Amino acid sequence: MPAVPPTLPPAREPGRYRVALVCLGNICRSPMADVVLTDRVRSAGLDDRVEVVSSGTGDWHVGHPMDRRAAAILTGEGYDASAHRAQQVQASWLTDCDLVLAMDQDNLRDLRSLAGGTADPDRVRLFGDFDPLEPGAEVPDPYYGGTDGFQVVLAMVERTCDVLVAAIRDSPPEDN
Length: 176
Ligand code: 4NP
Hints:
Elements lengths: L16 E7 L5 H15 L6 E7 L11 H9 L14 H6 L2 E4 L2 H10 L9 E3 L20 H24 L6
Parallel strand pairs: 1-2, 1-3, 3-4
Helix pairs in contact: 1-5, 2-5
The protein binds 4-nitrophenyl phosphate (4NP).
């Protein structure tokens, strides 16, 4: 983890800091990140300060549970993947959420397009911008690959969520 956590944009409104995680289908990468970040937030005692949500840019899987391979990897590491149901991102998330983190460049481009070119680059950006090992990396889409791909996703998600939680924890309370 970086010695000094990155600075996050301030909360738009008083209340819980809203972090949205976005991939293509909302059944693999962003729900894995949602479950891990929610777990880390709870462990840090920040439940009352942070809200985590996730969605996909596409609508094919709306209402579906997490991909069984993603759920199996999470369950094997002690996380609870059972509550997830996929949803599609809404344009309002881009103006309401404090941080909207895309898993890859395609997702980011689609989010910027949904915002009609008005997305704040400090708030709508790559999840991998906070990756301490590979800053700016994309989280590779594991859907058409094997189990290895899901393990790569989990490792990226865990180390990046650690940075995000440290950044939120170290922000002044009035900022989030
Ligand atoms: P995700 O993975 O964006 O990480 O949820 C995918 C899930 C489904 C599809 C592609 C990627 N799909 O083509 O249905």
